[in-house]
Each structure stands twice: as structure tokens, then as C-alpha cells.
Design a protein that fits this description.
The strands form four sheets. The protein has an eight-stranded parallel barrel, surrounded by eight helices. Strands 1-14 form a two-stranded parallel ribbon. Strand 2, helix 1 and strand 3 form a beta-alpha-beta unit. It has a single domain, classed as TIM Barrel (Alpha-Beta Barrel), CATH 3.20.20. By secondary structure, it is an alpha/beta fold. It is built from eight helices and 14 strands. The structure holds zinc ion.
């Protein structure tokens, strides 16, 4: 029996533009269409940011609401995860969309350097966002940009400050943060297993190393993230024609590692989320 792999598609993010790749979905209509194609290709979790129509990142709850409505209609059962990432707002307003009660929300449990700035997640802010996620029943996906963030997540789960079992994403390849490094990755995986044996995890690689992390995650029993937020190319010469094409790349890899894309029901069960309505 092959083990199911939850494929996350990070459809838009807050950085890539149409100039980087015309397939980056910006408007809500584009986002819904792009996610539906990715869903049909095998993705079961959508990681979402929203933009204004001119491409500027925003955390406008009204836009998130329209996106969620479109995804519920066109991608039945797909897990919707909203980003509380720092490029789209400041302070507690980063969680302003949580009252929409998405299935999941991203939660960085510490600060780190990004290419041109500090990704600022102060202890207070992490606590507030986590509290709001409990209030609105959104399961956190912990974004671990560094080892200390794994320890912080475990500490918070033990104190019932975040809902378990933990789901952690190891992010590698952001400039000035943790590079793509195999032995560090293995240490992340073994540390999480040691501290939180019931935790699930995903590997996310940025840029050309998206595929590297897809390989490693499939090999070591984790789940995979892909999508235009993190990488806009299929290879050095070719732009990815869609989010679905990047999802297909993971689907095609699964067999090599005796894995298969999870169904919606399996993905929800693996993450201890309620079955789709
Ligand atoms: Zn994101």
C-alpha cells in the first residue's frame, strides 16, 4: 500500500508578478481558476494570499472571503489555508481574515531574515495570531524557517496554545534564511519526530530547489508543497505554464518513491481536519 502525499499548491504569494510569469494568478477569478486546475491535477491543500487587482499584496478580509467562496464552489473539499504572512500587513491585522474560519492558517513561530528585510514575528504577535487561530478554529501550519521555530511550535502545542497534532512546514532556500541543505533537513525531520511523534510535515523549497524539496519530502515520508508563490519555472529555460503544471510535476514524482497523491478525504484525515461538508 503506497503512502498518500498531501500536495499543497501555493498559488500566488505576495512577491511574483505577471512580469515574472504571466500565469501567476492575481485577481480572485484567476486565483479560483488556477486553483481548480491544480486541484484537478492532484493538489488537496491551497495556500492562499490575496492581492489587489494592481498586484499589491493585501490582507483585506473581503477579498479572502470571495476567494474562499470561489474555492468552496469549484474545489469541493479542498483544504483552504490562508496566509498570515508579513508582506501583506503589519501586526495583528495579519490575522484579520481569521474570523472567516478557514480550515488552516499559516503561523511563523519566530523571526528570520528574508532577502531584503526582517520577517518580523515577535513573541507577542505569534501569541496573538495563535490565539485567534484557536478562537476561529483554524489549524495552524507552522512555518519553520529555522530550527528554533520547531521547538517554539512544540512548546506552544504542549501549552495548548496551538491546536495539535502539529503540522509543520520546513522552508528552505529563502535568501538570507536557511539554505537548502540535506543534513539540516534530515535533522529537522528527526527533531520533529523526537519532540512530537504525531506531527505531520511538509517540505517547501524556494526557486529552483522547489523540486529538490519535493524529492526529499517524498523520500522521507513527508508531504509536498509546490506552486508559483515559491517558484515560477519548470526548469532553467521554461516558465511553468500554470500552478497545475507544478502540481503535475509532484504527482509524476510520487511513483518513484512509492507514494501517491492523497485524496481530499485522506488529506483531511492526515491533518486531523473535519471531513468536507
Ligand atoms: Zn505564502
Amino acid at each position: 500500500m503506497t503512502a498518500p502525499c498531501i500536495i499543497t499548491v501555493a498559488i500566488t504569494g505576495s512577491l511574483p508578478t505577471k512580469a515574472d510569469n504571466p500565469a501567476v494568478p492575481i485577481t480572485i477569478a484567476e486565483q479560483v481558476e488556477s486553483t481548480q486546475e491544480a486541484f484537478e491535477a492532484g493538489a488537496t491543500l491551497a495556500h492562499c494570499h490575496v492581492r489587489k487587482d494592481d498586484g499589491t499584496p493585501t490582507s483585506d478580509p473581503e477579498r479572502f472571503a470571495r476567494l474562499m467562496e470561489g474555492l468552496r464552489k469549484h474545489c469541493p473539499g479542498m483544504i483552504v489555508q490562508l496566509s498570515t504572512g508579513g508582506r501583506s500587513g503589519a501586526g495583528r491585522e495579519r490575522g484579520g481574515m481569521l474570523p472567516l474560519k478557514p480550515d488552516m492558517a499559516s503561523l511563523a513561530t519566530g523571526s528570520v531574515n528574508f532577502p531584503t528585510r526582517v520577517y518580523d514575528n515577535s513573541p507577542d504577535l505569534v501569541g496573538w495570531l495563535a490565539e485567534d487561530m484557536l478562537t476561529y478554529d483554524a489549524k495552524p501550519e507552522v512555518e519553520a524557517f529555522d530550527l528554533s521555530m520547531i521547538f517554539k511550535a512544540v512548546e506552544m502545542a504542549s501549552a495548548d496554545q496551538i491546536r495539535g497534532p502539529l503540522h509543520v512546514q520546513f522552508v528552505m532556500g529563502v535568501k538570507n534564511a536557511m539554505p537548502v541543505d540535506r543534513s539540516t533537513f534530515e535533522f529537522y525531520v528527526s527533531t520533529l519526530k523526537r519532540l512530537a511523534p504525531d506531527a505531520t510535515w511538509t517540505g517547501a523549497g524556494i526557486g529552483k530547489d522547489q523540486i529538490t524539496l519535493n524529492h526529499w519530502s517524498l523520500e522521507l515520508g513527508g508531504h509536498c508543497r509546490t506552486g508559483l508563490e515559491d517558484n515560477v519555472r519548470l526548469d532553467r529555460r521554461t516558465l511553468a505554464p500554470s500552478n497545475a503544471a507544478l502540481v503535475q510535476r509532484v504527482v509524476d514524482l510520487c511513483e518513484q518513491y512509492d507514494r501517491r497523491p492523497a485524496s481530499v478525504a485522506e488529506a483531511r484525515s492526515l491533518l486531523s481536519l473535519p471531513a468536507a461538508a
